[in-house]
Amino acid sequence: MSLAHEREDSLVKTLKESFPSDIKEATVVRRSRINLVVAPDKIADIAVFLRDKLGYDHPSGVSAVDYNREGRFEIVYHLSSIKTRDQQDIVINLKESVPRNSPKAVSLVSVWPGVENYERESIEMFGIQFEGHPRPEKLFLNDNWDGPPPMRKEVRFPTD
Amino acid sequence: MTTTEKPADTTGMQAMSPTEPGAQTMTLSVGPQHSGSGHMRLIVELDGDIIVSAMPDPGYVHRGIEKIIELRNIIRSIPVIERPSIIDASNLNHAWVKAIEELQGVEPPARGQYLRCLINEMNRIMSHLYWLSIYGVFLGHTTMFMWPLGDRELFIDLAESLTGARITYSYLVPGGVRRDLPKGFAEEAIKRTKYFEKRLDEYENIFFKNPLFTSRAKGIGILTRERAIALGSTGPTLRGSGIDRDLRKDEPYAAYGELDFKVHTRPGGDSYSRAMVHMDEMRESSQLIRQILEKLPSGPVRRKAPIVVPRGETYARVESARGECSFYMIGEGGDKPYRARYITGSYRNLAAIPEVLKGVRLADMPTSWWSIDYWPVEADR
Questions:
Q1: What are the backbone dihedrals phi and psi of residue A39, each rounded to the nearest 5 degrees, phi first?
Q2: Does the domain formed by B65-380 have CATH 1.10.645.10?
Q3: Contact A113 B231 (CB under 8 A)
Q4: How many angstroms separate the CA atoms of A75 and A66, rounded?
Q5: What per-residue confidence (pLDDT) applies to A1?
Q6: What whole-number distance in Å separates Cα of residue B83 and Cα of residue B61?
Q7: CA R_g for chain B
Q8: Which of A48, A108, B244, B273 could form a disulfide with B266 if both were Cys (CB 3.0 to 4.6 A apart)?
Q9: Which residue of chain B comes nearest to A137, CA vs CA?
Q10: Do A140 and B62 touch (CB under 8 A)?
C-alpha cells in the first residue's frame, strides 16, 4: 500500500466542490481518516450526498463530545462504506457543532437507519435534541431517571 | 391492593398497559431476567405466536463506562474496558491501547504485535465457544451446552499460562504486551488447537447437522444484505448476510497484515448462516494460532510508552469477536482522555434485533436473536 493519500484527497476534493459554502473544514487526518466539519442546517443534504454519491452507506456510530469551555457540543457521525470496495478502510467523521445552551440538531435516522440508537444515547447522556428522531426515549438510563444528562462535563461523581 | 391501584415504580421501567379486549395483537414483556432475553428486556408484539414487532429495551447492565474512563488514568482504565465483555476481554483491550498508541505515535515491537494477535485469536475462539454453549441452552441441547464450555478450558489454561489470568487478562498495555511466552507454550498450544479442530468436527455432527438445530435456524431470522448495511451491522452478523468485511483484512492492524487467513461469509442472512460463520471463524482462528506461533519473531515484547494521552483525536478500531470495536478518543495532554467514545460490536448489532425477530415464531425468538451474538453487557457498557 502506498503512503500517498490519493483516495482521501480525491474524496475531500469532491466534497469541497459539491458543497463549497456548507463544508467548513475537510481534512485528511491520516491515511484512512477524513474529518468533515459542516454547517448544522446543511448536514442532512451532505449526509444524503455521502450515502448516495460517495457510497458511505454503513454507519459505524455517533459520538457526542461536550466542549463545555467553548460552549458547544460536537456531534460526530462515523461513516464507512460497503459499496466501494477499495475504500473499505476509510472512515469519514462527519461533524457538526450545536450551541450548549440550545442543543438542537437534525436527526439523520432517515438517511442512515442504523444511527437511531446512537442518537438516542446522545439525547439521554448529553441532553441534545434530535429533530425528527422516531423514538426520542431513554435507551440505557432508567425510564424514571430525572437527574442531569450524566455525560455532561459538569456532572461529577463523589469518587472523582 | 385493589386491581386498579398501580404498583410502586421501583424498577424504573415504564409499566405496560394491559391488552385491550378484542385487540388483534398482544404485547409481551420478555425479561429483563435471563429467560431467553439476556440481561435485557424485549417488548414483543404477538399475533398468535408470530412476532409482529420486537423492541429491545437495554440498559439493565449499564455501568457508565464512558464516564468512568474520563475520570481515571489510561492504565487504570484497562480492567474497566475489559468488563463489558469479559469473554472477549483482549479484543476490547486492543481497541483501547490502539487508540492511545495512535495518539502517542508509539508502535509496539513486532513480537508484541504477534502476541497481541495470539491472545486476540484465542479470545475469539473462547468467545464463540461461550456463545455456542448458550445457543445449546436455548435449543435445549444439553450436550452443546457442556461441550463448548469444557473445550473452552483448553484455551483458558493457555491464556492463564501466558497472562496469569484466566478470563480478564489486562495483557495489552500501551507499547506492547505485559509478558513474553512461557516455556513450552508453543508445543502445548499446537497440541490443543489440533485437538480442538477435531472437536469442531464432532460439533458439526452432533449439532450443526442436527435437525433440532437446522429446523429452527435455516430460513429463520432473516437479515437481508441491504438491511444489514443500512443498520450498520458488523462482525459475524454482517458476514452472515454475505458481506465480506473484516477489519483484520480491511484495515490490517497489529500483525494481521502478515498472516494468512480467510474471511468467512455465508449468503443466507438467516440464523443458520450467522451460526455457521461463527463455526468457520473458530476453525480459522485455530489455524491462525499455530501460524502466529510459527512466524513469531524474536525481540522485545514491549516498548516504553508514557502514561499520557497527547492532544489530538483519533478513531481506532479492531475486529473483536462480535465485530468492530472502536474508540473515538480525544486527548488534551493529561493522563486521561478528554472523551473516549466506546462503541462495541454488540451495540452496533442492537439495531438488527427487531429486524431479525420480525415474523419469527415466539418459540424461535431466543435462538434467532442469539444468532446475532448480542452480548447485553457489551452493548450497555
A1: -75, 135
A2: yes
A3: yes
A4: 9
A5: 46
A6: 11
A7: 22
A8: B273
A9: B57
A10: yes
pLDDT-derived band at B3, boundaries 50, 70, 90: very low
Distance from C-alpha of B227 to C-alpha of B267, rounded to nearest angstrom: 13
Q: Which of B121, B129, B98, B136 is nearest to B286 (CA)?
A: B121
* CA quadruple A66, A67, A68, A74: dihedral, nearest 10: -60
**Cβ pair B324:A32 closer than 8 A:** no
The interaxial angle of helices B271-295 and B110-138, nearest 10 deg, is 150
**pTM score:** 0.89
Extents of the domains making up chain B:
65-380
What's the confidence (pLDDT) of residue B2? Answer: 41
* Phi then psi dihedrals of residue B228, to 5 deg: -60, -40
CA atoms of B138 and B366, how far apart (whole Å): 6
Neighbours of A68 (CB within 10 A): 12
Confidence of residue A22 (pLDDT cuts 50, 70, 90): confident
| Contact at CB, A61 and B243, closer than 8 angstroms | no
Q: Report the distance separating Cα A118 and Cα A77, nearest Å.
A: 9
The closest alpha carbon to B351, from B340, B343, B361, belongs to: B343
Q: Tell me what the mean pLDDT of segment B174-200 comes to.
A: 92
Residues in chain B with CB shorter than 8 Å from the CB of A144 are 9, 12
Residues contacting residue B49 through CB under 8 Å, at least 6 positions apart: B361, B362, B363
Q: What is the ipTM of this complex?
A: 0.90
Who's near B179: CB < 8 A, 6+ residues apart?
B162, B163, B164, B171, B301
Q: Is B250 in the A-facing interface, judged by CB distances under 8 Å? A: yes
First vs last Cα of chain B: how many Å apart?
Answer: 38
**How far is the alpha carbon of B193 from chain A, nearest alpha carbon, in Å?**
31
Closest by CA to B350, choosing from B272, B222, B267, B234, is B234
Per-residue pLDDT, averaged over A23-43, amounts to 88
